[in-house]
Specification:
6 strands, alpha/beta, binds flavin mononucleotide, globular, 5 helices
């Protein structure tokens, strides 16, 4: 089994990006599983603490390390990634020389209430992957536009086209991860 770790850059109860990850957990291929890590409780980054990190950050880093691949669902805040997401990434990349994301395959999806579906945030997120030395999946790109129209009141993704895009993204991430050799082919 290939082990994917997913996290969303929103703490909002009714977050569409959190809901996207829940949908992804249902759509994951049979030979993989998706575990979701909630960023709630991760404190603001403080470099003074990077050699004695808070427990939740240590847990986050351990889960990243043990994952074969990473899946990030990001909102777009002011044409960029939310501070909550950047903050978590900064913690997990430290201290210098102990970046837990190093070498990990990663896929991205985004949901926004706007007409670009978080595209600008995705490209900014991809820029961080360069320094993190991750291996981003290029395609398919999953931008969920007008997200408020695509989920029901319980946060279930009801839009069939979006469900298919997520399924394709997960299949491509699994294939990409196997290609990179992070997982033994069985
Ligand atoms: C501070 C803030 C800035 C935002 N900026 C953008 C933006 O630049 N582009 C966009 O498409 N939506 C923007 N939005 C709207 C978000 O797409 C919308 O709130 C979305 O639901 C956030 O994702 P979530 O549901 O996962 O929390 C912004 C929302 C907030 C709260």
């Amino acid at each position: 089994m290939l082990n994917i770790l997913g996290f969303a850059g929103s703490l909002r109860n009714g977050s569409y990006n959190r809901a996207l990850l829940r949908a992804a957990a249902d759509l994951v291929p049979k030979d993989a599983k998706l575990q979701i890590f909630d960023l709630e409780g991760i404190p603001p980054f403080n470099q003074d603490l990077e050699t004695s990190m808070p427990k939740i950050v240590r847990e986050f880093k351990t889960k990243i390390r043990s994952a074969d691949a990473i899946l990030i669902a990001t909102p777009e805040h002011n044409y960029s990634i939310p501070g909550v997401l950047k903050n978590a990434i900064d913690w997990a990349s430290r201290p210098y020389g102990d970046n837990s994301f190093e070498g990990k395959p990663v896929a991205v999806m985004s949901a926004s209430t706007g007409m670009l579906g978080g595209a600008r945030a995705q490209y900014q997120l991809r820029q961080t992957f360069v320094f993190l030395d991750m291996h981003p999946l290029n395609r398919p790109e999953v931008f969920v536009t007008f997200a408020n129209q695509k989920f029901d009141e319980k946060g279930k993704l009801t839009d069939e086209k979006t469900r298919q895009f997520i399924k394709q993204l997960l299949e491509a991430l699994v294939a990409w991860t196997r290609k990179l050799g992070n997982q033994e082919i069985s």
